[in-house]
Amino acid sequence: MSQPEGYIEAGQEQKVCKLNKAIYGLKQAARAWHLKIGESLIKYGFEQSKADPCLFKFANNGNPMYIIVYVDDLLIAGKYEDIRKIIKELEEEYELKNLGEVNYYLGINIERTKEGNFALNQKNKIEEIVEKFNLKEAKPTNIPMDPNYLKQEGEDDILPNNTQYRKAVGALLYIATVSRPDIAVAVNILSRRNEKPRERDWNAVKRIIRYLKTTAELKLIINTDKEPILTAFCDADWANDKSDRKSTSGSVFKLGNCTIQ
Questions:
Q1: What's the whole-model pTM score?
Q2: What digits encode the pLDDT tens for the residues 109-147?
């Protein structure tokens, strides 16, 4: 790495420093940190999920505890006593900032209802998107996409620059994946047009944003059923997209009464 300011000696300006370990900002730093925190959690008895390496589980006499690791943001779920214990153990090894009971995580508002359920909402993130694409004064709409969108042939001009389009679709994909499955189909359709979007595609993207603005208060409820049942549904159309005659398949997974994917 380059020499830090204030440490450069005259005549030694071309010299660089050799790093003995990863530091913040290096391309390999995130991986190095994830391996380090993973080693610590496994040392404390946690088991790393094979399906998602960011999820760790600890089985404690029928009282499981879970930790989600997103870089240096950790979310812990379990019994209060178990949570306090693991926090104390981690504090002996790392400098921690305990934010208490979760109410916001990775752009997600998390609310605990009086029934003990969790309500997920991304109102703050939606407001950021609305402001970013200058749609604060846009008209509301109650559906995310025109039902006849795929049946309509579009021959209008291709956008001269697809940067804004791709940014908007990327932001909407995150919203759809986390808490708003009601926009998933519309976002999926429009994400296929990232390379050469037309004016009508851009208007359709803005319509989804207007729909989110109209329905920003909607919440995804996660029930606390003792023995939730995993249910899956799937379906597909047949060459429904007239622009390329490609088919669309889809699936919905529910854990108890909660849509999880």
A1: 0.79
A2: 999 888 888 899 999 999 999 999 999 999 999 999 988
Residue 5 within any structural domain of the chain: no
Q: Does residue 49 belong to any structural domain of this protein? A: yes
SS3 217: coil
Cα separation, 253 vs 53, whole angstroms: 21
Find out whether 176 and 184 touch, Cβ atoms under 8 Å. Answer: yes
Residue 114 included in any domain: yes
First to last CA, the chain: 43
CB 41 within 8 A of CB 79: no
Nearest to 179 by CA among 101, 261, 105: 261
Range of the domain at 127: 102-217
On whether both 130 and 196 belong to a single domain, the answer is yes
Domain assignment present for 249? yes
Nearest to 242 by CA among 158, 152, 148, 157: 152
Length of the chain equals: 261
β-strand partners of 108: 105
Residue 237 and residue 252: Cα distance in Å, rounded? 15
Cα(239)–Cα(213) distance, integer angstroms: 32
Give the amino acid at 197. Answer: P
Q: Quick count: other Cβ atoms within 10 Å of Cβ 48?
A: 16
* Segment 193-240, tens digit of pLDDT: 888 888 999 999 999 999 999 999 999 888 877 778 889 999 988 877
